[in-house]
Amino acid sequence: MKLYCKKCKYLLVEGLIKAKSSEVIYTDEISLIPKGKYLINNDVWNFEDLQITYLINIKSIKLKDHYDYKKMQGCCGPSGLDGLNQLCPTCNEEIGVLIADCFTPHFIGIEKNKVSEDPLW
Fold first, then answer.
1. C-alpha 118, offset from chain centre
2. Tens of pLDDT along 19-34?
3. Does residue 39 lie in a domain region?
4. Disulfide-capable partner of 53 in 44, 46, 47, 112 (CB 3.0 to 4.6 Å)?
5. What is the spatial distance between Cα 25 and Cα 17, in angstroms, rounded to a whole number?
6. How many Å apart are CA 24 and CA 105, to the nearest integer?
7. Is the whole-model pTM more than 0.85?
């Protein structure tokens, strides 16, 4: 799978393979999904009002941390409770939410309305 930023058409990630349920680990401070894999968020994690569709290993996608430190709050890392906190590396569009606190598994959730699986040109 590939994901492109809808705003600037930047290729955010490619080559992701859907994770098997046996590969998903629901343990605090551990990667939820193996590197190079993704999940579709069907009640895996509650994001309140965010439209998070894709859950990706933190090391599988290179996004920038949000410049507003309030969106990066948490006890030991970003909790994701303050909205989208990951930005497209080229246009700074809010793309996803980093979940990496001590009371959560670690992953990045991608907002479905901000990305496309197909090239936009």
1. 18
2. 999 999 999 999 999 9
3. yes
4. 112
5. 16
6. 10
7. yes
Q: Is residue 121 part of a domain?
A: no
Whether 107 contacts 79, CB under 8 Å: no
- Where do runs of H (alpha helix) occur along 45-97? none
Answer yes or no: are the C-beta atoms of 81 and 54 closer than 8 Å: no
- The verdict on residue 34 lying in a domain is yes
Q: Count the Cβ atoms, other than its own, within 10 Å of residue 101.
A: 19
Partners of 111 in the β-ladder: 52
Range of the domain at 108: 3-116
Q: Give the 3-state secondary structure of residue 71.
A: helix
List, for residues 28-74, the tens digit of each pLDDT value: 999 999 999 999 998 778 887 889 999 999 999 999 999 999 999 99
